[in-house]
Amino acid sequence: xxxxxxxxxxxxxxxxxxxxxxxxxxxxxxxxxxxxxxxxxxxxxxxxxxxxxxxxxxxxxxxxxxxxxxxxxxxxxxxxxxxxxxxxxxxxxxxxxxxxxxxxxxxxxxxxxxxxxxxxxxxxxxxxxxxxxxxxxxxxxxxxxxxxxxxxxxxxxxxxxxxxxxxxxxxxxxxxxxxxxxxxxxxxxxxxxxxxxxxxxxxxxxxxxxxxxxxxxxxxxxxxxxxxxxxxxxxxxxxxxxxxxxxxxxxxxxxxxxxxxxxxxxxxxxxxxxxxxxxxxxxxxxxxxxxxxxxxxxxxxxxxxxxxxxxxxxxxxxxxxxxxxxxxxxx
Length: 331
Prior knowledge:
- The protein folds into two domains: 2-146, Glycogen Phosphorylase B (Rossmann fold); 162-314, Rossmann fold.
- Helix 1 (11-19) links the parallel strand 1 (2-6) and strand 2.
- It is globular, with a radius of gyration of 20 Å.
- Mean pLDDT is 89; it is low at 30-46.
- The protein contains twelve helices and 13 strands.
- The chain has a six-stranded parallel sheet, sandwiched between helices. A five-stranded parallel sheet has the order 10-9-11-12-13, with helices on both faces.
- The protein is an alpha/beta fold.
- It has helices at residues 11-19, 49-62, 83-91, 103-109, 131-138, 181-190, 201-204, 223-228, 248-255, 284-296, 298-314, 319-329, and strands spanning 2-6, 23-26, 67-71, 75-76, 79-80, 95-99, 122-125, 143-145, 166-171, 195-198, 230-235, 260-263, 279-281.
- Helix content is 35%, strand content 16%.
Protein backbone atom coordinates (compact mmCIF):
# COMPACT_ATOMS: atom_id res chain seq x y z
CA UNK A 1 0.00 0.00 0.00
CA UNK A 2 0.98 3.63 -0.49
CA UNK A 3 0.77 5.55 2.79
CA UNK A 4 0.65 9.34 2.97
CA UNK A 5 1.30 10.95 6.36
CA UNK A 6 0.08 14.41 7.36
CA UNK A 7 1.53 15.82 10.56
CA UNK A 8 4.69 13.75 10.73
CA UNK A 9 6.06 10.25 10.45
CA UNK A 10 7.88 8.41 13.19
CA UNK A 11 11.12 6.99 11.70
CA UNK A 12 10.66 3.47 13.07
CA UNK A 13 7.06 3.35 11.85
CA UNK A 14 8.09 4.40 8.35
CA UNK A 15 11.03 1.99 8.24
CA UNK A 16 8.87 -0.91 9.41
CA UNK A 17 6.16 -0.27 6.84
CA UNK A 18 8.70 0.06 4.03
CA UNK A 19 10.46 -3.14 5.08
CA UNK A 20 7.10 -4.85 4.61
CA UNK A 21 6.83 -3.54 1.05
CA UNK A 22 4.70 -0.45 1.65
CA UNK A 23 5.55 3.06 0.41
CA UNK A 24 5.51 6.08 2.76
CA UNK A 25 5.19 9.72 1.72
CA UNK A 26 5.16 12.90 3.79
CA UNK A 27 2.86 15.88 3.30
CA UNK A 28 4.60 19.01 1.96
CA UNK A 29 4.02 20.72 5.31
CA UNK A 30 6.46 18.30 6.93
CA UNK A 31 10.15 19.13 6.69
CA UNK A 32 11.40 15.88 8.21
CA UNK A 33 9.87 13.17 10.38
CA UNK A 34 8.21 14.67 13.47
CA UNK A 35 10.14 17.94 13.70
CA UNK A 36 8.52 21.33 14.23
CA UNK A 37 6.91 22.08 10.88
CA UNK A 38 5.68 25.02 8.84
CA UNK A 39 2.18 25.00 7.40
CA UNK A 40 1.60 23.57 3.95
CA UNK A 41 -0.26 26.83 3.39
CA UNK A 42 3.13 28.53 3.21
CA UNK A 43 3.58 26.82 -0.15
CA UNK A 44 0.66 28.70 -1.70
CA UNK A 45 0.01 31.65 0.62
CA UNK A 46 -0.66 31.55 4.34
CA UNK A 47 -4.20 32.95 4.13
CA UNK A 48 -5.38 30.77 1.25
CA UNK A 49 -6.81 27.79 3.12
CA UNK A 50 -8.81 26.47 0.17
CA UNK A 51 -5.85 26.51 -2.23
CA UNK A 52 -3.57 25.03 0.41
CA UNK A 53 -5.87 22.08 0.95
CA UNK A 54 -6.30 21.58 -2.79
CA UNK A 55 -2.52 21.49 -3.15
CA UNK A 56 -2.48 18.80 -0.49
CA UNK A 57 -5.18 16.77 -2.27
CA UNK A 58 -3.30 17.04 -5.58
CA UNK A 59 -0.10 15.81 -3.94
CA UNK A 60 -1.89 12.86 -2.35
CA UNK A 61 -3.47 11.83 -5.65
CA UNK A 62 -0.16 12.29 -7.50
CA UNK A 63 1.44 9.76 -5.16
CA UNK A 64 -1.31 7.22 -5.97
CA UNK A 65 -2.10 7.07 -2.27
CA UNK A 66 -4.10 4.21 -0.77
CA UNK A 67 -4.16 5.40 2.84
CA UNK A 68 -3.89 8.90 4.33
CA UNK A 69 -3.02 9.17 8.01
CA UNK A 70 -3.54 12.47 9.81
CA UNK A 71 -1.42 12.55 12.97
CA UNK A 72 -2.00 14.70 16.04
CA UNK A 73 -4.70 17.29 15.26
CA UNK A 74 -6.10 18.72 12.03
CA UNK A 75 -5.76 22.35 13.11
CA UNK A 76 -2.41 22.57 14.87
CA UNK A 77 0.70 24.66 14.22
CA UNK A 78 -1.04 26.15 11.13
CA UNK A 79 -1.70 22.69 9.71
CA UNK A 80 -5.40 23.04 8.88
CA UNK A 81 -6.99 20.02 7.22
CA UNK A 82 -10.59 20.74 6.24
CA UNK A 83 -13.54 18.36 6.20
CA UNK A 84 -13.88 19.06 2.47
CA UNK A 85 -10.36 17.73 1.94
CA UNK A 86 -11.13 14.45 3.70
CA UNK A 87 -14.37 14.04 1.76
CA UNK A 88 -12.54 14.69 -1.53
CA UNK A 89 -9.99 12.02 -0.71
CA UNK A 90 -12.64 9.47 0.16
CA UNK A 91 -14.41 10.24 -3.13
CA UNK A 92 -11.11 9.41 -4.86
CA UNK A 93 -11.01 6.03 -3.12
CA UNK A 94 -8.39 6.99 -0.54
CA UNK A 95 -8.82 5.39 2.88
CA UNK A 96 -8.61 8.06 5.62
CA UNK A 97 -7.30 7.54 9.14
CA UNK A 98 -7.22 10.01 12.03
CA UNK A 99 -4.59 8.93 14.57
CA UNK A 100 -4.50 11.35 17.47
CA UNK A 101 -1.54 10.88 19.78
CA UNK A 102 -3.15 13.08 22.46
CA UNK A 103 -6.88 13.53 21.90
CA UNK A 104 -7.76 15.45 25.09
CA UNK A 105 -4.90 17.88 24.42
CA UNK A 106 -6.36 18.86 21.05
CA UNK A 107 -10.02 18.76 22.01
CA UNK A 108 -9.79 20.30 25.48
CA UNK A 109 -6.87 22.70 25.06
CA UNK A 110 -7.06 23.59 21.36
CA UNK A 111 -10.83 23.50 20.95
CA UNK A 112 -11.06 20.91 18.19
CA UNK A 113 -14.55 19.58 17.49
CA UNK A 114 -15.41 15.89 17.62
CA UNK A 115 -17.85 16.31 14.74
CA UNK A 116 -14.90 16.77 12.36
CA UNK A 117 -13.90 13.15 12.93
CA UNK A 118 -17.08 11.80 11.32
CA UNK A 119 -15.49 12.22 7.89
CA UNK A 120 -12.72 9.67 8.54
CA UNK A 121 -12.91 5.94 7.79
CA UNK A 122 -10.92 4.99 10.90
CA UNK A 123 -10.23 6.71 14.22
CA UNK A 124 -7.28 5.77 16.45
CA UNK A 125 -7.13 7.24 19.95
CA UNK A 126 -4.85 7.25 22.99
CA UNK A 127 -7.79 7.39 25.41
CA UNK A 128 -10.04 4.37 25.84
CA UNK A 129 -12.65 6.56 27.51
CA UNK A 130 -13.22 8.43 24.23
CA UNK A 131 -14.01 5.42 22.06
CA UNK A 132 -17.79 5.60 22.55
CA UNK A 133 -17.80 9.37 21.98
CA UNK A 134 -15.98 8.90 18.68
CA UNK A 135 -18.36 6.13 17.62
CA UNK A 136 -21.33 8.41 18.23
CA UNK A 137 -19.79 11.20 16.16
CA UNK A 138 -18.53 8.97 13.35
CA UNK A 139 -21.56 6.75 12.96
CA UNK A 140 -19.38 3.65 12.68
CA UNK A 141 -17.48 1.27 14.97
CA UNK A 142 -14.06 1.51 13.34
CA UNK A 143 -12.59 3.27 16.39
CA UNK A 144 -9.67 1.73 18.28
CA UNK A 145 -7.00 2.33 20.87
CA UNK A 146 -3.57 2.88 19.33
CA UNK A 147 -1.23 4.43 21.84
CA UNK A 148 1.93 6.41 21.09
CA UNK A 149 5.15 4.41 21.45
CA UNK A 150 8.90 4.52 21.88
CA UNK A 151 10.79 5.07 18.63
CA UNK A 152 13.95 2.95 18.74
CA UNK A 153 15.37 4.67 15.68
CA UNK A 154 15.02 8.22 17.00
CA UNK A 155 15.58 7.88 20.77
CA UNK A 156 18.35 6.06 22.64
CA UNK A 157 18.84 5.25 26.31
CA UNK A 158 22.42 6.49 26.58
CA UNK A 159 23.34 6.63 30.30
CA UNK A 160 24.31 9.97 31.83
CA UNK A 161 26.48 10.14 35.01
CA UNK A 162 24.42 10.93 38.10
CA UNK A 163 26.42 14.07 38.90
CA UNK A 164 25.52 15.52 35.47
CA UNK A 165 21.77 15.20 35.88
CA UNK A 166 19.11 17.79 36.75
CA UNK A 167 16.59 16.82 39.45
CA UNK A 168 13.31 17.63 37.71
CA UNK A 169 12.21 18.55 34.18
CA UNK A 170 8.88 19.89 32.94
CA UNK A 171 8.33 19.63 29.19
CA UNK A 172 5.46 21.06 27.16
CA UNK A 173 2.59 23.51 27.48
CA UNK A 174 2.08 25.56 30.63
CA UNK A 175 -1.56 24.68 31.15
CA UNK A 176 -3.19 25.59 34.45
CA UNK A 177 -5.95 22.98 34.74
CA UNK A 178 -6.55 20.41 36.06
CA UNK A 179 -3.03 20.45 37.51
CA UNK A 180 -1.22 23.77 37.23
CA UNK A 181 2.27 23.24 35.92
CA UNK A 182 3.18 26.63 37.40
CA UNK A 183 2.24 25.22 40.81
CA UNK A 184 4.33 22.12 40.14
CA UNK A 185 7.33 24.26 39.20
CA UNK A 186 7.04 26.43 42.32
CA UNK A 187 6.61 23.40 44.61
CA UNK A 188 9.68 21.70 43.13
CA UNK A 189 11.75 24.83 43.61
CA UNK A 190 10.55 25.35 47.20
CA UNK A 191 11.71 21.80 47.94
CA UNK A 192 15.21 22.80 46.83
CA UNK A 193 15.28 20.69 43.68
CA UNK A 194 17.00 21.80 40.49
CA UNK A 195 14.49 22.44 37.70
CA UNK A 196 14.53 22.89 33.93
CA UNK A 197 11.48 23.83 31.84
CA UNK A 198 11.10 23.33 28.08
CA UNK A 199 8.15 24.48 26.02
CA UNK A 200 6.44 27.54 24.49
CA UNK A 201 8.10 30.59 26.03
CA UNK A 202 5.03 32.80 25.60
CA UNK A 203 3.11 30.45 27.91
CA UNK A 204 5.76 30.17 30.61
CA UNK A 205 6.79 33.82 30.73
CA UNK A 206 3.57 34.83 32.51
CA UNK A 207 5.06 33.34 35.68
CA UNK A 208 8.07 35.36 36.83
CA UNK A 209 9.53 32.46 38.81
CA UNK A 210 8.99 29.66 36.30
CA UNK A 211 10.40 31.64 33.39
CA UNK A 212 13.74 31.91 35.18
CA UNK A 213 14.12 28.15 34.68
CA UNK A 214 12.86 28.08 31.11
CA UNK A 215 15.51 26.67 28.76
CA UNK A 216 13.73 27.11 25.43
CA UNK A 217 12.19 24.78 22.89
CA UNK A 218 13.67 21.29 22.51
CA UNK A 219 13.38 19.46 19.22
CA UNK A 220 11.48 16.19 19.44
CA UNK A 221 14.34 14.34 17.71
CA UNK A 222 16.58 15.02 20.70
CA UNK A 223 14.05 14.47 23.46
CA UNK A 224 15.98 11.44 24.68
CA UNK A 225 18.81 13.76 25.72
CA UNK A 226 16.46 15.49 28.18
CA UNK A 227 15.04 12.24 29.50
CA UNK A 228 18.48 10.70 29.99
CA UNK A 229 19.84 13.69 31.93
CA UNK A 230 16.84 14.02 34.26
CA UNK A 231 16.48 12.23 37.58
CA UNK A 232 12.71 12.76 37.85
CA UNK A 233 10.92 12.91 34.51
CA UNK A 234 7.44 14.35 34.93
CA UNK A 235 4.20 13.79 33.04
CA UNK A 236 0.71 15.16 33.63
CA UNK A 237 -2.41 14.80 31.50
CA UNK A 238 -4.83 17.51 30.42
CA UNK A 239 -7.73 15.21 31.35
CA UNK A 240 -6.74 12.74 34.09
CA UNK A 241 -10.35 11.53 34.31
CA UNK A 242 -10.01 10.12 30.79
CA UNK A 243 -10.16 6.35 31.21
CA UNK A 244 -6.84 4.72 30.26
CA UNK A 245 -5.59 7.94 28.67
CA UNK A 246 -1.82 7.63 28.16
CA UNK A 247 0.16 10.41 26.51
CA UNK A 248 3.37 10.00 24.52
CA UNK A 249 5.63 11.11 27.40
CA UNK A 250 4.97 7.82 29.22
CA UNK A 251 6.20 5.66 26.35
CA UNK A 252 9.15 7.91 25.49
CA UNK A 253 10.51 8.12 29.05
CA UNK A 254 10.07 4.42 29.81
CA UNK A 255 11.48 3.45 26.41
CA UNK A 256 14.67 5.39 27.09
CA UNK A 257 15.10 3.52 30.41
CA UNK A 258 14.31 6.52 32.59
CA UNK A 259 12.29 7.16 35.74
CA UNK A 260 8.81 8.67 35.38
CA UNK A 261 6.55 10.40 37.91
CA UNK A 262 3.03 10.62 36.46
CA UNK A 263 -0.34 11.94 37.62
CA UNK A 264 -3.27 9.73 38.64
CA UNK A 265 -5.02 9.00 35.35
CA UNK A 266 -8.25 7.03 35.52
CA UNK A 267 -7.46 3.36 34.97
CA UNK A 268 -3.68 3.78 34.96
CA UNK A 269 -3.25 1.25 37.77
CA UNK A 270 -4.98 -1.34 35.57
CA UNK A 271 -2.05 -0.92 33.17
CA UNK A 272 0.90 -0.27 35.50
CA UNK A 273 1.80 -1.30 39.02
CA UNK A 274 2.57 1.86 40.99
CA UNK A 275 6.19 1.76 42.08
CA UNK A 276 7.21 -0.99 39.67
CA UNK A 277 7.36 0.45 36.09
CA UNK A 278 6.71 4.06 37.09
CA UNK A 279 5.52 6.05 40.10
CA UNK A 280 2.11 7.71 40.35
CA UNK A 281 1.51 10.87 42.39
CA UNK A 282 -1.87 11.99 43.74
CA UNK A 283 -1.36 15.67 44.54
CA UNK A 284 1.38 18.30 44.76
CA UNK A 285 2.67 17.35 48.26
CA UNK A 286 2.78 13.70 47.18
CA UNK A 287 4.66 14.68 44.01
CA UNK A 288 7.28 16.59 45.98
CA UNK A 289 7.68 13.84 48.60
CA UNK A 290 8.13 11.13 45.97
CA UNK A 291 10.49 13.26 43.88
CA UNK A 292 12.71 13.88 46.91
CA UNK A 293 12.63 10.20 47.89
CA UNK A 294 13.66 8.87 44.49
CA UNK A 295 16.32 11.51 43.99
CA UNK A 296 17.95 10.25 47.19
CA UNK A 297 17.36 6.54 46.50
CA UNK A 298 19.20 6.10 43.22
CA UNK A 299 19.16 2.28 43.14
CA UNK A 300 15.38 2.14 43.59
CA UNK A 301 14.93 4.80 40.91
CA UNK A 302 17.10 2.88 38.47
CA UNK A 303 15.32 -0.41 39.22
CA UNK A 304 11.94 1.17 38.43
CA UNK A 305 13.36 2.65 35.22
CA UNK A 306 14.61 -0.80 34.20
CA UNK A 307 11.19 -2.33 34.85
CA UNK A 308 9.62 0.44 32.77
CA UNK A 309 11.87 -0.41 29.84
CA UNK A 310 10.99 -4.09 30.24
CA UNK A 311 7.28 -3.17 30.09
CA UNK A 312 7.91 -1.33 26.81
CA UNK A 313 9.77 -4.23 25.22
CA UNK A 314 7.56 -7.04 26.55
CA UNK A 315 4.44 -5.24 25.34
CA UNK A 316 5.97 -4.29 21.98
CA UNK A 317 5.23 -0.62 22.68
CA UNK A 318 7.52 0.46 19.86
CA UNK A 319 6.57 1.96 16.51
CA UNK A 320 7.43 -1.36 14.90
CA UNK A 321 4.75 -2.90 17.09
CA UNK A 322 2.36 -0.06 16.29
CA UNK A 323 2.85 -0.69 12.55
CA UNK A 324 1.37 -4.17 12.95
CA UNK A 325 -1.58 -2.80 14.90
CA UNK A 326 -2.13 -0.02 12.37
CA UNK A 327 -2.29 -2.47 9.47
CA UNK A 328 -4.83 -4.62 11.32
CA UNK A 329 -7.21 -1.65 11.62
CA UNK A 330 -7.11 -0.63 7.96
CA UNK A 331 -10.08 -2.37 6.37
